[in-house]
Structures are given as structure tokens and as C-alpha cells.
């Protein structure tokens, strides 16, 4: 017995020794090969000057994202969303305890921070009421009424995976919120969920286009006939890429996606940077009227505000045509919005942030007397109850988020949305990666997240002394200034004077100043 054991151990040592020598030999051969390749190539100066060793630079760059996310960055340091924000969403989606102890890790003295103003006599639980229903497009043949505050923003099927869409749809149905289809067309998965849908018409008219890429009334009518399609949204631009169309990498364009969109399999799908048939305010209103006439349902548009004088032009055109010509809603995205793929100059440097543009839009609607006619939907990096409460204070009617619900699905902010390598199966069509996303489980988390956001927005509202989130106003929040003092939102954005109360000469001067980029 002892002899057999000794023989086994000796043989094992010989095998491991041979394996070790083999690995060392392969490593040495690879090092020689890499040295020759690196020292003779002409594309990378670091590798040419430091053969083999220079390769570690690229390895450390890849590992740097991982170490910053999990080891080195503080809870409030990361972008676009820090660990504290993501953790709140994860806990809300799992319906676990979301309380914290000892004190806030947020630096409340940072300029720009929003602080809500608590009331000495907050609303009692028995006096609180849920958010009241609001109707969008009351003059259409099929108006849409909903009480839900928080909804799922546009994410195209193709940009996100099948299991992700299944989970989002089922979760939206359970939570009672709507799901925006994104610009990738209407798929059977959208309809199977049973949730309310906002059908988005992108610049390429996916799903409602003819063979030449133009809007087809027949296809549009087919889409609108589905009772689940409650509204239609013309996408003019989105926050992370204003002035550029959508990008779907060819690796994500499967046979199924190609059939839904009407495009070629395996080729990059790039939308025009604007609707070819909309080159002016008048043409935009024409298209809104056409889509509304064919569908009979509320129609609005999604945009990022940059040239603010354009709003005056738009609303003046509405008055010339009559209030019925106005969009039924405007979805406002900010420069802080998200995307699957965008050039860095656009994602970093183009468009106005939502903190600037949302008050501007609401005030312009008030100024032109259209606030009750046009509903405002805020979208762009609003994933926590405080974000949503701020938007309601400023004047939004509804709030939408895409990335918040991606976190609810399990997104870890790996920043690989454009590479078909998403490790959580959300933005990939790789079956091996998709299998980690279990739609029934994630649907429960999507619903819980939406419900917990709404519940905690109510908590903020009650602390401010109002009964319902929709009763929040600008005087309920203050903004920290560089000197450490706070100023109310109502002081930063005072109620505008209606145009009917302004002298014509003064009004003309204000319009000229706005269009020339000067303060009005």
C-alpha cells in the first residue's frame, strides 16, 4: 500500500514538473514572439519602445475600471451614477430595507445640490392621497389617462435583449406604468407583456416605414390599432446624442431585429440625424397632425433643448394654428441622458442639462398659455426619489427613466452597452450572457423599483406638508449656492409673465434677444 502511494506521488510530481516546464517554455516562446512583433510594429510607440512590458499598460487600463468601481472610488464619486445611487436602486428593486444609519455620506454643501424644505407639520399618513390621474390628449379620439408618476423610457428591442424586454414589459404591467418602445419598432414581445406602450417613431421610422424609408400611413395605422399602444412619440433627439441618429451595431442586428425594423441583417443600423421630412417648426406640427389624425391617439415629441428661442417659435406657431395643433406632450431629455452608443463630443459637450432645460420648458409653456394643454415628461438621469421629486417641483407631469430600470434588471454599469458583451445580459444578444437574466424574477424587481420610487417621492411630499406628489411646487425645494447659502427654486425660476400681459414692443425686443443668444 505504501509502495503504491509513493509511486502515485512520484508520478504526480513528474507530471507536474513536466507541465511546469512546458508552461515556462510556451511562455518563453510567446515572450520572444511578442518581443519581435512589438519592436517591429509601427502603430504603437509604447510597445515599440518597451516590447512585451508595454502590453501591461493595456491590461491595467482594462483592470482600472474594475478596481475603481469596486475598490478605490468612494460611494459618491463615480459617474455617470455613483455607488450610493446604484445601491439605492438595487435595494428598492429587491424590496429590501433601504434605510441608512449614522448620517448622510452626501456633501450637502456642494453647489447645485437640491434640498427639500420640510414642513413643521408634515402630512399624516391617513391624510395622504395617491397621485391623481392626468389625461394626455383629451381632444384626441383615444385620450390616455394614468395616475402613475414614474415610467420606463425608450429602449429599443435590439439595443436591449429579449429577456430584458420581457422583464421590463411584465414589470411595467405589474407596476401600472408605461413602457416606451424606443425607436426600434413594435415587437410581439412588447404586446405579450400586457403593459401600456408609448410607440416611439425615430428618424428612420422603424416599424412604420415603407420600402423607401418614408412614413407609411398604413403601417402607422396597424401599429396604432393595438389597444396597448396608448401614445405615439416622435423622437427628434435624445440627451446623449443630440443632432445624431441612433446607432445599433451590426452584431446586434439579428434576423428577428432586421424583420421588425425593416433593415439588413448583420449591418450597422444608423438612423438619420433628424427626420428628413421635418426641417422646420411648421413641418413638425404638420407631422404631429398627420400622426394624430391617422392614429387617433395622443402624439408628442422627445427632444433636447439647446436653442431656447426655438420654443417661442414653436408655441407662436401653435397659437397661429390653434391650441388643437399643439403636441399633446413633450418629453424633455437633458444632456445628462444615456444611450447605448454615441460619439464622445456629443455625449460630453452637447445640449443643455435637464436642470436648466426643464424649468425653461415649463416656464415657456406658462408664458404662452399652453401649460394645461401640453403635458411635460422629464427624462434624463432621474433614478432616485429625490430626482423625481425635483422634477415634479419644477413642473413636470411625469418622469421617465431607462438606466434606472436597467439597474433594476441588474445592470452593474460595466459600460459595455455598445459591444454586445454586457455581462448581465441586458444589452447583448449573446445567448450565453442572456441566460443570466431570468425574466420572471427581474420583472418583480422592475415593478418593485417603480413602486418604491413612487412611495418615497410621496414620503418627500408628505415631509414638505402636501398630501400628494403632484402638489409639490418650486418653493418646496432650495438649491445650494457657491457661497453655501440656499436659494428656493421659486426664486431661481420665478413665475413668468404671460405674453398677453406684455406690451407688443417689449415682447418683440425679448424675442429678438432670445434668438440672438442674449438674455431676454
From TrEMBL:
Top-level taxon in the UniProt lineage: Bacteria
TM helices/strands, residue ranges: 12-36
Domain named Glutamate synthase: residues: 147-466
InterPro entries in UniProt: Aldolase_TIM, GltB, Glu_synthdom
Keyword entries, A-Z: Membrane, Transmembrane, Transmembrane helix
Protein family membership: Belongs to the glutamate synthase family.
Protein name per Swiss-Prot or TrEMBL: FMN-binding glutamate synthase family protein
Source organism of the structure: Thiohalocapsa halophila
Lineage, opening ranks: Bacteria, Pseudomonadati, Pseudomonadota, Gammaproteobacteria, Chromatiales
